[in-house]
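Table S5 (text form). Sequence records supplied for joint modeling of the two-component complex.
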Amino acid sequence: MKRYLNYYLSMMRLSVLEQWQYPLANYFYMIGMIAEPVIYMVVWSTVAEEQGGMVGGYTPGAFAAYYIVWTLVRQMNIAFTPYGWERRIRNGRLSMSLLRPMHPLHEDIAFFAGWKVVMIISWLPIALILSLIFKPELNPTLLEVIVFFFAIWMTYLIRTLTLSLIGMVTFWTTRVSALFELYFALELILSGRLVPLALMPEWAQQLAWFFPFRWTFGFPIETLIGQMTTQELLIGLGMQLAWIIFCAVVLNIVWKFAIQRFSAVGG
Amino acid sequence: MTSAISLQKLSKHYQVPEREAGLKAAAKGLLKRHYKLIKAVDEISFEIQPGEVVGFLGPNGAGKTTTLKMLSGLLHPTSGFASVLGFEPARRSHDFLRQITLVMGNRNQLSWDLPALDSFDLQRAIYNIPNEEFKKTRDEFIELLELKDLVQKPVRNLSLGERMKMEIVGALLHRPKILFLDEPTLGLDITMQKRIRAFVAEYNKRYGATVLLTSHYMADVEALCKRIIVIHHGKLLFDGNLSQLADKFSAFKTIGFTLDNPTADLSQFGEIVSTDGSRIVMRVPKEKTSAVTSSLLNDLAVDDLTVEATPIEDVIESVFAVKKEAVV
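The corresponding structure-token record, covering 595 residues in total, follows.
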């Protein structure tokens, strides 16, 4: 355990050092990413104002809170994509990772965890500016803040594991982009990324319970914007944990087959 | 003594899809794919004792890298068995991976944007190397490879040779007992090649490590390896020392001499390889060496006569020229 902790801290440190080499590039990247929720926020706030100040229980201030928290959750659920798996198999970097006495997944998790530290620090002034402009209604309790803290890290783990599972398809076919696009489309609709799930039809809300997407986007946002009871908060954390365990077990099984198929192409 | 590395009829076969060029063939391929069986490595067996430095030679596509990948646990063999330090590599146990390293001349594990020292520290964490031991090994290697002025520069600012030296340090910080070196001097200048060779020799001496080395530079092999294993078309072609290889595969010897009258007809003695003024180098069948030498000394005014074995590069070239059908 101590060994892994030591590794995670070293890898996160390396990642932070790498990101500090390119602060401006990171900022541009983040500004590009923030354009998406700002568009959603403006559109939904306008709709709310036109409908008498509220849509599906959301006021413009609630939308602002939702989409500003969205920007942080989005930073947290960024993970190593299936494209990354495809690329590292092709360029031989996976071979290098496989030579280490550690599962390559630890490398991914630790590296992006370090990356997030830099991104969150960079995010703070942007969140402040967005708050000054859009005036979010955000008054979380201490419990909600604590749940949010755990929820965003579990969000990161779920997304890392699910994307890694898709990435591992690369061991069977070197073109995994089609599958990723399908995942991405479902995620957009069923996660709360495009629109809060509360505004979706009932059937879509029911369906979202059975996919991992809601637990990587909508749920952590909802924990902070004050829409959930204590019981719902705990159930949500339980669902996240269940998805982590489920994905880890499946990933472990798939990995055993995948590694036997690995032909170490290009390296 | 228990072998450090042992291979018994180890094979790696691939099913590779193939089709003719063109749209029609591509459409046909959608319905029915044709596969070709490629025997990258075909039932090779050998043993390497602890502390040995062995050259693993073969032309491109012979199966060298595939074998190294199987021995380092990257590839699962199709059949046969491999054992490295008593471990089955394909199981990739962490205890096994902690004791080996694979260095590939065209690969990098160091962070491109940071000084190598930062990446070395990550190696410490990966292999759980105690701090004191890590610093001692790191500083020792930095001194041996003369890297002191370079370790604080970002890796992207280093030359190819400097990067390669850093890669080697990174790959050996955990003091592996087995080194698989795949073209470690690829693309480097002569000075850099020599330094890396000297470092590998010193590492082997200090830590008693077993080394299996592939290289297309015969100077690497001659400087480091007493024993060589030649693989060709996936089959083991030769296992022995360098001089035995020359005996087996070279049917010629080289006779060099200086002649007072370089215009004399020498075709009856053997094949002229080169002439440089009055200095002539000739290639003759091995069994005729004594007879040709006597004739040259008796019939012509010859000075400074030397008889040498064929250069190892030429021997290897003749080995690599062996056709697939001839390798059984």
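Note: The CA atoms of residues 194 and 219 of chain B lie 9 Å apart.
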